[in-house]
Fold:
Amino acid sequence: MPDYKKIDSYLHSHLDDSVAELSRFVAQPSVGAQNWGMQECAALTAEMLRKRGFVTEVMPTDGAPVVFGERKGKSGKTLLFYNHYDVQPAEPLELWETPPFEPSLRDGKLYGRGVSDDKGHLTARLFAIDALLNELGDLPCNIKFIVEGEEETSSVHLHDFVRANLARLKADACIWEFGGVDHEETPVQYLGLRGICYVELSVETASIDVHSGLGGSIFPNAAWRLVWALNSLKGPDERIRLPGHYDKVRPPSKRDIELMAALPETSEVYKKQYGVKSFIKGLTEGVDLRVEEVFTPTCTICGLTSGYQGPGSKTVQPARASAKVDFRLVPDQEPADVLQALRQHLDAEGFPDVQVTFLGGEAPARTDPDDPFVKLVCDTAMEVYGKPMKLIPLSGGSGPNSPFVHDLGLPVATAGLGYPDARSHAPNENIRLDLYVKHAQHVARMLVEFGK
Amino acid sequence: MPDYKKIDSYLHSHLDDSVAELSRFVAQPSVGAQNWGMQECAALTAEMLRKRGFVTEVMPTDGAPVVFGERKGKSGKTLLFYNHYDVQPAEPLELWETPPFEPSLRDGKLYGRGVSDDKGHLTARLFAIDALLNELGDLPCNIKFIVEGEEETSSVHLHDFVRANLARLKADACIWEFGGVDHEETPVQYLGLRGICYVELSVETASIDVHSGLGGSIFPNAAWRLVWALNSLKGPDERIRLPGHYDKVRPPSKRDIELMAALPETSEVYKKQYGVKSFIKGLTEGVDLRVEEVFTPTCTICGLTSGYQGPGSKTVQPARASAKVDFRLVPDQEPADVLQALRQHLDAEGFPDVQVTFLGGEAPARTDPDDPFVKLVCDTAMEVYGKPMKLIPLSGGSGPNSPFVHDLGLPVATAGLGYPDARSHAPNENIRLDLYVKHAQHVARMLVEFGK
Structure:
């Protein structure tokens, strides 16, 4: 039984070193969407693991490489950490108070692109390992790291990578790349992620735009074709009209509703934060709003583009129109089913001219709220955060947890250093150093308890 | 009786000078929608008129100024030319083979934004005047020019301008800003223009874009609201669903159908020129296609914009969405009626959140096909083009002819240098120099005959 006081003392006294390491890590750009610095950042990630005695390998994929690292510990049990070294583009640059790739410390916060999502999570976990090695001279359990470079670009190659490396990635449980506290400073644990099927719908009705005085009466109009095709997918009743779309939807269980009911009220927070006047589907507040937020499939238009979009008027009939559409999926929906149903639906509704381009997908996946590993993560958090961790049965967002849950068969728990003002994906992304240390304290405890 | 041979000889031998003048005119941008170069181009227009001895005035409006010019001639009769110095936006710039505001001559064609619509028409007419002055020393009739700067932005202030200047604009007939030959090189004369009501529809559902993992299930989506509102205006049956929209529509007369039947077949030309595979409403060819093209009201989406429109995917729920929509009107529809019906319709269909911004309107107007001035324009064309001019009872396009027809009481005839591949409003707008000279020859003859 290690002395947690000594571990915590190590973490407090060595914080500057860890923040310096994180700062070097953030200063190495790794913007997947811009293919900027990916190889260099993968090499740096492997070097950071090797410094802790991990055997590492930078493994190529058809996209950015995956960094794999492994170190044996005292017990025969293995914990797998999933992290990623890629970051979102930093644009719009003019909104950053300090340059995104020059990490800056002020008021107890470290600012920079990727400092929270996800580089800070990786270094905080390595920091916990440093503290354990210092105190115990060894790891309490086997640890594996899989650090990918395509999380911010839909993890296009991760599923295949996992399937091709099942033996190497074999573990008993998995800690996810993110986590943190809510606006009441309560640590929360997400037990699953919705899936996603992201497509672009596009129509071309002519080779060039046509003067609307000519085209309007007799030529097909790409923008109209797109509008009608979209309208056929979902009307104001919000019901998605793809054939069989709801067939595999598992409604939330009694336990899920119970967990959702225990979460804090969000309606006023949302209205204030996003300037939304009212919710759809007649929702107003309470558990109904929270359950609907995550337990229903969605079909969201993320973008529309066609014809003239400048100021004033231009009398043109557009030859081309396109829409970005994401479908969020709940268990047990599958992105491949959505793609197939979408094509069938468009053909059946008279829109064979509407092209579907698949831009990325993930299946939804969940971990049982009563899995012992979930309890271990909660119990070890209690001592660090001073209050019970809240369990959220499903997140509205998506991520590549399906191969970990369904292919590797792991319970996946989230724990991290995030907080509501971390501004991930936005300018002035930041972490709070107090939460950075807390996450390291939590990880050290998880590893010890897990090894028992 | 002037010697037309000498006039034609002047026009052929001075073509380079006129093209140089047109090139300078085109090189002065005057994009109304972007408020770019309007004052400068108005001043240049006035200068070009003054060079021919016109008394000019640049008259302010609440928008771009109107250039007015007047010069007396031998007879007491007055011909009014209506032209415009503004041009359409040049975007998308990447599709131009040479820069839109650097006129470029190749293969007997001059390329540039506005070279056909409408700057070439103005300079060709001035070129005819130069030839007449050179040959006769005087003009055969009084000539007035009204050159506005808001034609491409729906001539918002022209109607009021005409009403406020009825005495100054008094004339006996009017030559319109455009005209030209069809794909069989036959000169055509349009006897009327459809009206238009151009609006922007816009929706705002939140103060900022929301992560689609959160917003998709519970927040209103501006792009969806817009799609549904648009869909309520017109479905794939192409029937416009505004209340009473077809009540004032006058069907084409027997004489109209007779004139339309005499026009050449267009279906294959359209398919080839615009890359359109088939027409809407089950139309295939013949007089039915031609009548439908111009004698029906339209509702055209000219542009759509919302959310993320870049490469790849971004999982965002847009806070704002907007569409540019034009309604083409046939006699006796009125833009004010459309605006009122549109608001009523949106409210009734559950879209009070969809804002309507009026961006411009014109009533439809027509000239009697049997007016003597129409005959004069036809007869003088015969000698230049070598074949009879074709009369088209109504154009599919729109323009501010209503105040000229209804307020000034003028017969309005079209004649010009356009041809089917002029690409007005599109990239690589161009004129053919042979047609440029022919239009000047035609104008010179019209002026002489009109003065008799």
